[in-house]
């Protein structure tokens, strides 16, 4: 079931569970600094007399040192500024949460609601990445939807671990909701006998130092505004998160702003706007992990909401990640992303496209599963050299969708093209792309695959597209009228109701076949995947059709 846009979860429904982080089994190295939030001693960082806060440990840590956290809850904002190659990890088997919330204090009953006097934190409500600036004016490019005008207010209240939905005025406060009333908070549920918590801290970790490693901890209930970028901000070269869970952040969970950063087996769930944001994150790797149920506050899907959005980055590798049930695009590569490879990615049940490649170049999708997205499984917009090998894209609006609009580099109102020499050249024109060895179909829209130019100036036969050895799986009563849409200049595109007719007209998909529903049939002999792609993705040796 897709998430519904709302300023918080439906209080009648259980929230999706997050992975509970656990500390790694390895014994910490000699000289490690120890921290235990339950300690009431004046600690010195030894295992016998641990510090009580992570910030104390960071302040005395040496380059290359290790900090070990005992099980517990740490209400902290920690800045790692200038200690390189520092490791922060949970104790073996420990459950560690950095928590940005505090329990409520004074309560006053006021009939149908309860007042929490002087407990509303002072938070920034800027709706864009520019602090203090108003929302964008361009139609379709505003962060905040008029249907959910409070999305940019990061205020959050939780009742027994469940987020309450914010309303704009006292009259709207009822069960499952809260409102900000000056310096006070109003809640619509009787707090007596319940754990009611208020988000007060904007960040858990802000990392500027290179080589920082965070391992085996959880981060929850932080309240960053949009210009705060995220509950976790990684700005150091070679920083790494491993087996970290970031849940219930008011806007963005993790922001990557440094080079050669790795996110390994990271979970980001229930962020108010976006799970992961990355900009100029050259060499970013996302290895495994789960990114789901993000944009709970109902921000507009454009310019920046959903699962993962990455801009002006090359190279990029995403492998074995699940990006599911986000309100918006699952994975969005936008504005000068290049030399990107997506291996065995799963994007399911997102409320727009599973994967969107826009204004970018040199992207490969290999062995991916894209299913049940409300938009296209894969949408490629104004991007060239986007190759598709061995994907399974079923029950999306379109399985694979290459589209061209009127934007060109340098055109009025268009974003700038990156001048960084690490970014490959950007043509902003579809073409020079391969789709092979893939299972495509059961689409809910008008076509299974499309190459379509909305300006009606391009001829798909001249774009260097290469389609072959695919299986077009047609539903028993297909919603999609066409197997292929093929653009032509000056008029509506060519459309085809069978692979055979399309192949005869354009010499594409020559060895491809149609499959009625899942009726057994002989698949085409698959083409070999390029050796460099196979080796980099650690792919199985034998050729096959569809996702691995």
From TrEMBL:
Right handed beta helix domain residues: 232-387
Source organism: Mobilicoccus pelagius NBRC 104925
Coiled coil ranges: none
Organism classification: Bacteria, Bacillati, Actinomycetota, Actinomycetes, Micrococcales
Compositional bias ranges of the Polar residues kind: 1-10
Region (Disordered): 1-31, 114-138, 403-424
Name the record gives this protein: Right handed beta helix domain-containing protein
InterPro entries the record matches: Beta_helix, PbH1, Pectin_lyas_fold, Pectin_lyase_fold/virulence
